[in-house]
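Escalation from tier 1.

The customer reports that the assembly of six entities below gives different structure tokens on two consecutive runs. Tier 1 could not reproduce it. I'm attaching the input and our single run for tier 2 to review.
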Amino acid sequence: MKIQLINPNTCQGMTDKIAVSAQTICLPDTEIIARSPAHGPESIECAVDETIAAAAMLDVIAQGEAEGVNAHIVACFGDPAIDAARELAKAPVIGIAGAAFQLASLVSHKFGVVTTMSRTLPAAHHLLHRYGYHHLCTGVRATDIAVLDLEHIQADVYKQLVDECRAAIEQDGAEAIVLGCAGMSDLANEISSELQVPVIDGVVAAVKLAESLHALNLTTSKSGQYATPFGKAFHGRYQHWSR
Amino acid sequence: MKIQLINPNTCQGMTDKIAVSAQTICLPDTEIIARSPAHGPESIECAVDETIAAAAMLDVIAQGEAEGVNAHIVACFGDPAIDAARELAKAPVIGIAGAAFQLASLVSHKFGVVTTMSRTLPAAHHLLHRYGYHHLCTGVRATDIAVLDLEHIQADVYKQLVDECRAAIEQDGAEAIVLGCAGMSDLANEISSELQVPVIDGVVAAVKLAESLHALNLTTSKSGQYATPFGKAFHGRYQHWSR
Amino acid sequence: MKIQLINPNTCQGMTDKIAVSAQTICLPDTEIIARSPAHGPESIECAVDETIAAAAMLDVIAQGEAEGVNAHIVACFGDPAIDAARELAKAPVIGIAGAAFQLASLVSHKFGVVTTMSRTLPAAHHLLHRYGYHHLCTGVRATDIAVLDLEHIQADVYKQLVDECRAAIEQDGAEAIVLGCAGMSDLANEISSELQVPVIDGVVAAVKLAESLHALNLTTSKSGQYATPFGKAFHGRYQHWSR
Amino acid sequence: MKIQLINPNTCQGMTDKIAVSAQTICLPDTEIIARSPAHGPESIECAVDETIAAAAMLDVIAQGEAEGVNAHIVACFGDPAIDAARELAKAPVIGIAGAAFQLASLVSHKFGVVTTMSRTLPAAHHLLHRYGYHHLCTGVRATDIAVLDLEHIQADVYKQLVDECRAAIEQDGAEAIVLGCAGMSDLANEISSELQVPVIDGVVAAVKLAESLHALNLTTSKSGQYATPFGKAFHGRYQHWSR
Amino acid sequence: MKIQLINPNTCQGMTDKIAVSAQTICLPDTEIIARSPAHGPESIECAVDETIAAAAMLDVIAQGEAEGVNAHIVACFGDPAIDAARELAKAPVIGIAGAAFQLASLVSHKFGVVTTMSRTLPAAHHLLHRYGYHHLCTGVRATDIAVLDLEHIQADVYKQLVDECRAAIEQDGAEAIVLGCAGMSDLANEISSELQVPVIDGVVAAVKLAESLHALNLTTSKSGQYATPFGKAFHGRYQHWSR
Amino acid sequence: MKIQLINPNTCQGMTDKIAVSAQTICLPDTEIIARSPAHGPESIECAVDETIAAAAMLDVIAQGEAEGVNAHIVACFGDPAIDAARELAKAPVIGIAGAAFQLASLVSHKFGVVTTMSRTLPAAHHLLHRYGYHHLCTGVRATDIAVLDLEHIQADVYKQLVDECRAAIEQDGAEAIVLGCAGMSDLANEISSELQVPVIDGVVAAVKLAESLHALNLTTSKSGQYATPFGKAFHGRYQHWSR
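Tier 1 run:
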């Protein structure tokens, strides 16, 4: 199968990194097509960033769909534009936050989330509510590590991240940790070894869910909310969306 | 004061219509600057439309802010990009759905919402939850009238709308009606006369709330979630957002 | 328009003070009629006080309605007897807690409430739930300042109040402050200057909402829950209510 | 023990009727003191009625407390003034709605409520939320029988009531019925025989709970919310409350 | 009446102790039949214990039902197997956690729960949600006292328990205390004297509720969820359940 | 990897059927070990059945764990004893209801559940709440097909099932269907072809989730709620659990 793995940030470093994470754990016959949009912010750390990245990302969804990919993964912890993407796609669209919450809930009674900037906290809480996992989460902790600082992680940044995970376990009662940024994808195993609880990275979680849906022949329902939009005119820089 | 009244749809007809609604009820010294984005869909009727319109609308927010407007109104019932707009603006940003819910709750125990297309129902429910008004709403009813058909309303479309409002009152127990599209702005008084309950249009509700905040010198808090984003690079067609 | 501004406490000092607050910000053609009931407690600080003040206040609602006022404001943060008042009135009835929550939610992501006595905390939480704003509130903090001590505020009391507001911002993450007593009405601007976040006083918020509803010709729905009560006998000191 | 059984309506007929219900099922050494306030509405059927009855009822609570009763029962399904009553009383204060919900939840998975006038429905829903039983209730059905028509029940009114109970069972899935008015107290056994499900009358439920608390030596906590109010001046017809 | 008081733990010491508690406060004509299952864990302190004890306890329910008891009390704070027991029994089945929450809510605005092992906290929270009392609870505090250590309580264990109750009152704002284990049944009065708030033991609470239901002739509804199961084959050690 | 697929019912026919379903879609190197307990009811259709099956099933968990299986699947839609199983197992334990909800939420905005007997509805609703999917479910519909009638499905039973699925889509707005019984496992593809929406069977969903967790090296957290129980005495037929 072909999985389009979309980094909605435009920073190529993170795209390369998550491609490696995905390729390491995917099935032999899974092809990972990792992309980021041509347009938009280098990193997504506030609502302005996310609003713009969401619109830009839809071009990538349309491209993958045209190419016949079997699943799309939105590899930003805010799961941006997931509803719009599902309207455009017949293939399933999986956000990494939703994917991580699902697997975390299978191996723990309550999990904690450790993320990047404080101002992404409301977005994380919104997703916990949207997906219905708020009562299973012991809290969301911000490290105030900038997304781009995750490209080449220094020892002090790593320590900061581990310390926050440990606080989630010891102070909040987390029994597992969800990493709240695609840029942390390569650290899950190391932190899990250190803290002795399951540590879930949404990127690889989403890859396995995509493969699962594919094996079961499950694709986005086109009945109701995610039906293909009917045609209309778009203007200016979105003219190519006119249908 | 200057109020920037934004129609996030690119259809000029609706922009003109809501400008008239706003000017009819604003204070003598309020200036209404009605605009729609240069880019994006003619009408917003699904998540794809809304995702693209949201990004396009931020340019208008930035323009108004640069001009020193005293309030921004987002005149689409989905209240798109309201968080991003508040990050960009010092002036208050008011969505018409939120505004309508507020005034409706002051004159009724429970209100009903009557809107356009069925597929916007989840968005309406999401806003009722987000703003905390779900328990005060008797239900959201779709008419399946297309947004652009509201520009010049025909008798049969009007009847369809009134019938749905009457059903909300008689079957659902609504004590007041919130109109779920800016394009219905000119119909509130007529429907209220016919059905003898308060009928709330979010456009004029938002204008009065904007004037209220201005009179009380209340502007968007820049402490916390709505702080101004810090600078970063944007690429491609969003390069002008590089800060 | 005529706004009846009701202080449900019988202390004239607070009635005079809120009249000044209202007159300072109302429109030129708004007449403020400030009143307190002839009967009841000097201040409302527990459920017994509120239960008695609620019954006494209905006489004032009836009087204002007979005089043809265009709006009633209930200027006690517990919004006492608001449902009964709406049954009696054709004019809108606005509680100051509800009014403050509405405007606070327009200029912040989450707001804090700072109020008087600890034992009014459950009442404040009840109102946050009733109006649907609980999820937008970072918490309610009591100062244990007595209501009557707000008539002529001393420096130490003022400091106590500001300290609690600061704690709401710094410890709880409040981005705006709602003042939880009509008696604090004259302090909003000063505290806002000092703390650099929006500070909302419910009295002036309610005045602007009353003017907004009036401008839009919106009055209490008489269909359903707030329909005029049908006649029946009342006995003893409530005989004048026999209808 | 002495139980003060308060009918907050001023109609003596209902007071006499519930006294009989209570005396029929109380323990041999329980004395039932049935009273209604000297002031207030003949029947409670809207928020105005309830607001006035609530204030009037507090005099009865104070009288009973002075006489040393061991429990107070508020025998109106809206459980009016229950918080204020608990502030005044050392003896427990039990509302009949709360009492009925408790026993109903012990003998059924989900129960239905059948009450009097439609406009009391919001009050019933409010109590279900307040006490936490909303998820255990299949719905509240109004019969639109006036409270005073329950004093001497005619055959057609009885049939109307039974029909609504049957609808609650057959259409809503109720497994037990809570009767939503003290005036229905004498009908519980008959309806239960006819419909073959438990039918709970709050008056007798409250009597048994009052006896239970007394046997266990449990009285209203005076720590926190229900502490005795501190003294202050009351004016006009409430001067006797000055403490 | 006959009450079957079931200790789902197999430790006879606790069975004897709660029998004494029950006999001390029951009516003269109430007979207490205290039993524990022949099978299962000595104490219930995790989900494995509870799952096994639940199945074992059903034999005791069936035995009591065959003997014609008038009520069953499940005297373990997790209220195990309460739904299955109600399917089997015509007599009411009362769990001690549910019983304690009901009485606590009649004498306080908010109560705290003090229980044994930390790992029973999720079970306690589950019950608060199931019965609808979560919003009335200030928190659940674990003492990490083992259940069997409650059989003969030493001074230091008692002090630990009282300290936790005091913390619930002073730090969490509890106005009453619910004891979270049947093994604490004999301590309620002593702790209440020391801390001067109501302290509720679920065992005696359940006895009084059982007597209340009996006096009102209320038994488990056999319409719907708690209808008697229809017959089927059971195998192995559960063959005696074949119906 | 080895997956222990447990049918908590003792009917061998269903065990064989789900083994086939699982083997059809598992990876080449996955070994399915399908088992049912030696003890307990032939089918699980009420709380008594489930309570007994839960205890019996723990023996199978312990056996699989001793054999070193890499995952356990509990193939009964009530997800019985899932917490106890997780305490016993280091390998992940997956219930089929939870698994089905997860995958359904990835391919639809809202899904419906179609199950067997009416009296299992409360159990299904409980699981939707427990896992946090209630707001994503359009409703649970019972077919009143007995579990054992699913072993060899007749044409009329199949039609009844499809009709109920169609009603969920057309009347309730379901965009995907979750089949509410392991015994329906072999019908998902056929119903999906007929109704043109995704139809999710929990058995195969759980197999793919088990393989996903195994690929990511995620096992049950032993920190907190699911820690291994400490030793204690068990009596009678549960003596083998003494630790």
